Amino acid sequence: MYFILHGKFQVTIGNIVVRILEPGSHFGELALFTKGARTASIQCLTKENLVLKLDYAKFLHLLNRFPDFAKSLKNHIDSSYLVEKKAVPTDPVKEV
Questions:
Q1: How many domains does the chain have?
Q2: N- to C-terminal Cα separation, the chain
Q3: Could you give phi then psi for residue 80, rounded to 5 degrees?
Q4: Which domain holds residue 39?
Q5: Tell me, what CATH number does 25's domain have?
Q6: In tens digits, what is the pLDDT along the chain, a chain of 96 residues?
Q7: What is the C-alpha to C-alpha distance for residues 93 and 7, in angstroms, rounded to an integer?
Q8: Is 68 exposed, middle or buried (0-12, 13-18, 19+ CB in 10 A)?
Q9: C-beta separation of 44 from 7 below 8 A
Q10: How far, in Å, CA of 16 to CA of 19, rounded?
Q11: Of all helices (H) and strands (E), which one includes residue 72?
């Protein structure tokens, strides 16, 4: 999981931009929470960027130590994932 301290990033799924992230935002929580593959790509939009990385062991420690954080993060993941999924067509338009 990464926390943005400085800079601007875009989140894309396929070629579709689904979110813009700025300082105070975070990404990568879904892969840590589910232990699955990432679902989106992150691209820097600014020349200077600074992120703080939270590794899996520390992530688990936070979830166990702060159950309210775990619940809040799960709710955030559920709502963010639904928004991002709606932004990407499930059936691509076929050219004729």
A1: 1
A2: 42
A3: -65, -45
A4: 2-86
A5: 2.60.120.10
A6: 899 999 999 999 888 898 899 999 989 888 887 787 787 899 999 999 999 999 999 988 988 999 898 888 888 777 776 555 555 544 444 433
A7: 34
A8: exposed
A9: yes
A10: 9
A11: helix 67-87
